[in-house]
Write a structure and sequence with these properties.
Structural class of chain A: alpha/beta
Largest sheet of chain B: 7 strands, mixed
Distance between the termini of chain B: 31 Å
Radius of gyration of chain A: 19 Å
CATH class of the largest domain in chain B: Alpha Beta
Order of helices and strands of chain B: EHEHEHEHHHEHEHEEEEHEEHEHEHHH
Helix content of chain A: 40-55%
Number of helices of chain A: 11
Number of helices of chain B: 14
Bound molecules: thiamine diphosphate, magnesium ion
CATH topology of the largest domain in chain B: Rossmann fold
Strand order of the largest sheet of chain A: 2-1-3-4-8-7
Radius of gyration of chain B: 20 Å
CATH superfamily of the largest domain in chain B: Thiamin diphosphate (ThDP)-binding fold, Pyr/PP domains
Strand content of chain B: 15-25%
Largest sheet of chain A: 6 strands, parallel
Shape of chain B: globular
Number of domains of chain B: 2
CATH superfamily of chain A: Thiamin diphosphate (ThDP)-binding fold, Pyr/PP domains
CATH architecture of chain A: 3-Layer(aba) Sandwich
Order of helices and strands of chain A: HHEHHEHEHEEEHEHEHHH
CATH class of chain A: Alpha Beta
Structural class of chain B: alpha/beta
Oligomer: heterodimer
Number of strands of chain B: 14
Chain lengths: ~325, ~350
């Protein structure tokens, strides 16, 4: 049981990495024509949290959403096609990289305005409660989202009304090029500050996928049992530039040394080593899992590439539901 | 004369304003980062220090209220949003406080703040990263709304906005940032509420704003070859609007085409048509026309934006139709293979 969980978690991690790095490789063909925020380096949080959720639990995300979509089981063919602006995309080419959706696996949407989906998760949790269901609703956001007023308003409401929400803050130290030091008080932990609102909190190493999974499993269990919201903060680091395919350690807002320090803590490599050491899996099994995923990803890019562009004619009739 | 890019002109206006008045401050997400908001705020922190030029938390609503508060005690804050869309989180402070404080307290308060908002088009900016919502702000009494097109106007209007004692919404189109024009050195001001006549003609009046004026200039060059000559008025300021110049022109030409960077319904361009009908009815020889975005959110896919945005070609076609000619803009303009969703070679996504 634990064995299968670990292999599944590894598959999620490797799939996210492969998709993100393939996007980075191909972006300069300039066929993916939309702002694209890659999650390379941050896979541990997405994979660990989603591994702890059931298929019918709900997930929301923000501008950096590829990892969350993939980890929840979103269809990668439709995701890549969306980034290519194709009619087969998960949002029919209307939303792009920042607006992913796969309702079949409970991924209700990602949006681009910082903090925008935080209250939506509480709203879905309210509906779950009204329907007497035991589903958990999870929302992923970054360290900058806790600077928006809507974050506090939502946590306050969720605590007061015991809404079954899992709030996941991925703290990667930056908002675009702005370090935490110019945005939040020195030596303050986000999770401690949030605890002051009255919500249960925990925190952990986002680059240790198993730790993320165990803390999330624990939180999800409590949410279901006690019908309360929980806030988890995980530390992690984005490898590539804020938006786009390149590395940007040379432009001055962070150092190559800091980047290399975090690269050492690569969540994918860390977990692969852990599985090998624990003899959950051997080298040849790893290679065959990787080969399978690489094929799947390549096939998804081919699908996206071969798909048709959407037609403008009639699209104005799609603004309202009729 | 010396030429500057629009983005450099903004930068220079900041520099002058901050030099001549120690109460001018500049803040917003990323204003002191390595990109300096598309170059517009580069170097300001080095020149004026971190007390006057600073980054902020992602807290648009609070930071707007903080600007208003500071302005009540003599500071002249200039806030910057890399996308207009982000300012929407601060609508409460803008509309309920900034726009009201002077009037509501019997004229005892002034709110001299400037809020820069960047709009755009193309490269899949999509539904929530490129909205041209000038009409929303124009609807609010107590706000001034400015939309410069040239580098020259950008500098003069930003200086006027900063030293205006009222809240000014200063809207910059991303596709203008790299365009150059003659820009004098030193301090000069352009009156908020005065439009600019870009070209003269007797056939038709085009009233335009921001980036659409660039498309109009291209269209007029082509139209001239077919002996069609238009008045082109760049409004520069949406609120207050320079009605005198617009009415004067329409009374001369009898025909009006309005261009808008935003959606047509409830728009600035519609409002211009309404006022013209009301004030110049007997001079009109044809029904006024409006070229604006379709009434739908901005799609992301390039195949969709291609038919969503309006270009010189469309301006030629509508002018031609209004004058009973049959020119085909798409046959007349050769874009030399440049994709429709970028303003020029200098622009590579994703920003
Ligand atoms: C309300 C709002 N303000 C500003 C932005 C511009 N913006 C886009 S992503 C981003 C960084 C957010 O940082 P964080 O939440 O830590 O997420 P990360 O990018 O680090 O994953 C910002 C400021 C935005 N999208 N929405
Ligand atoms: Mg961050």
């Amino acid at each position: 049981m634990e064995h299968t969980l670990k292999i599944n978690l590894f598959k999620k991690l490797f799939k996210i990495r492969t998709v993100e790095e393939t996007i980075a490789d191909k972006y300069t063909e300039w066929e993916m024509r939309c702002p694209t925020h890659l999650s390379t380096g941050q896979e541990g949080v997405a994979a660990g949290v989603c591994q702890a959720l059931e298929d019918d639990d709900f997930v929301f995300s923000s501008h950096r959403s590829h990892a969350h979509y993939i980890a929840k089981g979103g269809d990668i063919r439709k995701m890549i096609a969306e980034i290519y602006g194709k009619s087969t995309g998960c949002s029919a080419g209307r939303g792009g990289s920042m607006h992913l959706i796969d309702k079949s696996v409970g991924f209700l949407g990602s949006t681009s305005i910082v903090g925008g989906t935080i209250p939506l998760a509480a709203g879905v949790a309210l509906s779950v409660k009204l329907k007497n269901s035991s589903q958990v609703t999870c929302t992923f956001f970054g360290d900058a989202a806790v600077e928006e007023g809507v974050f506090y308003e939502t946590i306050n409401y969720a605590v007061t009304n015991k809404l079954p929400v899992l709030f996941i803050c991925e703290n990667n130290l930056y908002s675009v090029y702005s370090p935490l030091s110019v945005r939040q008080p020195e030596n303050r932990n986000i999770f401690e500050m949030v605890e002051g609102i009255g919500i249960s909190v925990d925190h952990g190493n986002g680059n240790d996928p198993w730790e993320v999974f165990e803390k999330s499993r624990n939180a999800v269990g409590k949410i279901r049992e006690l019908q309360i919201p929980i806030f988890l903060e995980f530390s992690t680091y984005r490898w590539r530039e804020h938006c786009g395919p390149f590395f940007d350690n040379d432009i001055g807002y962070r150092t190559e040394t800091e980047f290399l320090h975090w690269k050492e803590k690569d969540p994918l490599q860390f977990f692969e080593n852990m599985l090998l050491e624990q003899r959950v899996i051997d080298e040849s099994q790893i290679q065959s899992i990787k080969a399978g995923i690489i094929d799947e990803v390549n096939e998804a890019f081919q699908f996206a590439h071969d798909s048709d562009f959407p037609d403008f004619t009639g699209i104005q009739n799609s603004v309202y539901h009729s | 004369m010396r030429k500057l890019k629009f983005s450099q002109a903004i930068n220079e206006a900041f520099e002058i304003a901050m030099q001549i008045n120690p109460n001018v401050i500049c803040y917003g997400l990323g204003v002191d980062d390595p990109k300096g908001v598309f170059g517009t705020t580069l170097g300001l922190k080095e020149k004026f220090g971190k007390d006057r030029v600073f980054d902020t938390p992602a807290s648009e609503n609070a930071m707007t209220g903080i600007a208003i508060g500071a302005s009540l005690n003599g500071i002249r804050p200039v806030m910057t949003h890399q996308r207009l869309d982000f300012s929407l989180l601060s609508m409460d402070q803008i509309i309920n406080n900034a726009a009201k404080f002077h009037f509501m307290f019997g004229g005892q308060h002034t709110v001299p703040i400037t809020i820069r908002m960047i709009t755009g088009r193309g490269w899949g900016q999509g539904p929530t990263h490129s909205q041209n919502l000038q009409s929303i702000f124009a609807h609010i009494p107590g706000l001034k709304v400015v939309m410069p097109t040239t580098a020259y106007d950008a500098k003069g209007l930003l200086l006027s906005s900063i030293f205006d004692d009222n809240p000014v919404i200063f809207i910059e189109h991303r596709w203008l940032h790299n365009l150059e024009s003659d820009v004098p050195e030193g301090d000069y001001r352009i009156e908020i509420g005065k439009s600019k006549k870009i070209s003269d003609g007797f056939d038709l009046t085009i009233v335009s704003m921001s980036y659409m004026t660039v498309e109009a200039i291209h269209a007029l060059e082509i139209l001239k070859k077919s002996d069609i000559h238009c008045d082109l008025i760049d409004i520069r300021s949406v609120k207050p609007m320079d009605w005198t110049t617009i009415f004067h022109s329409v009374k001369k030409t009898g025909r009006l085409l309005t261009l808008d960077t935003g959606v047509g319904q409830g728009s600035v361009s519609s409002d211009i048509i309404a006022e013209v009908c009301h004030n110049c009815w007997s001079s009109l020889k044809a029904q006024p026309e409006r070229l604006s975005l379709p009434d739908m959110p901005t799609p992301t896919s390039p195949s969709l934006t291609k038919h969503f945005y309006r270009r010189s070609e469309d301006i030629i076609n509508i002018v031609s139709k209004m004058l009973g000619k049959d020119l085909d803009g798409y046959a007349l303009i050769d874009r030399d293979g440049l994709p429709h969703d970028v303003p020029g070679d200098w622009f590579k996504g994703p920003f």
